[in-house]
Amino acid sequence: MRKSVFANYNSFIRSDSFPFFIFLSFSPSCSLHFMQNNSGGGGDITKEVVVKESTSDRREEGSLETTQKVEDPRKSILSILCPLLKLFGGGDPAAPRNALLETATTGVSSIARLPWGSQVLPEVAAARAESGQPPQLFQLYEFEACPFCRRVREALTELDLSAEVYPCPKGSIRHREFVRSVGGREQFPYFLDPNTGVSMYESSDIVRYLFSKYGQGRQPSPGLLESTLVTGWVPTLMRAGRGMSLYASATLQPPHKKLELFSYENNQFARLVRETLCELELPYILRNSGKGSSCRPALLQIAGSTKVPFLVDPNTGVSMGESKDIIAYLFQTYGRSTPNPVAG
Ligand SMILES: N[C@@H](CCC(=O)N[C@@H](CS)C(=O)NCC(=O)O)C(=O)O
Q: Taking every annotated instance into account, which residue ranges of this chain make up the domain GST N-terminal (predicted)?
């Protein structure tokens, strides 16, 4: 670990981030990104210390050294933790799963994140129903298991905003490369708003931006930012790293057209589908359809009900509900290539 981390030790253990750091120290879902002043309550980030999982690839803010090499999760802390996680998580993500374990772990995850990411804020619902979505879709580079990305997806649900999601699992080939080349470093979430030309890292900044621009004067919901450090990691842990690493046999080429997923962040079954889209590195249009969403009439028309998840795949003409069926379909359709040499 870097010397500078120890130099700040005293203030660090007293900071809001300390409990989260302890979790991250054992979590393979994130590199150990410790941001001072990252309690979600203030945007004044004075210094960032980034300790990459891979001992051969360490960097601090200011030195934008980049590498074209795809990070090999097998050389990271994952190599120690993944066998355990894989055992707990049921091994091969494409293999049949224990339905009870799946329901229980995703259910507990949703309970941990109540009340965020389920319901559209009333002021926003009225505005969205009247004037619809912003003209161009946002682009969100993220991965499902990342608690900071979850924070942004929760805000999108509450603001009833759709987005193009570009999953960046560990071992991701296409999307991580894009973030590194455009943003300068591999850190998630990374967000672009083509309506304003704004792009940014830092989940709390992204959430504040979304509320200020599209929130009808609302501040971020009470606890949305702060709670990430308390329970934002629960789904990551409960789901044993699902939605974190690229599936070894994910097809190398993305499908011609983006899939479309009706979902809302804290829906326990939609989470399972998003994990799979992430593991297969499949870009998709996320139609957030929380309670009160303006997307629900369209969903009702296409699906015959407002239940989520509901997937539309314009590449094959398939559209379906039921998370179990969608997951099986996705692995069968997009998970059959020669094993990817860099995937974990
Ligand atoms: N303070 C940042 C923290 C972001 C962060 O630590 N993201 C982790 C994932 S949870 C990351 O990008 N890790 C690098 C990687 O996965 O390669 C934020 O709130 O956005």
A: 136-218
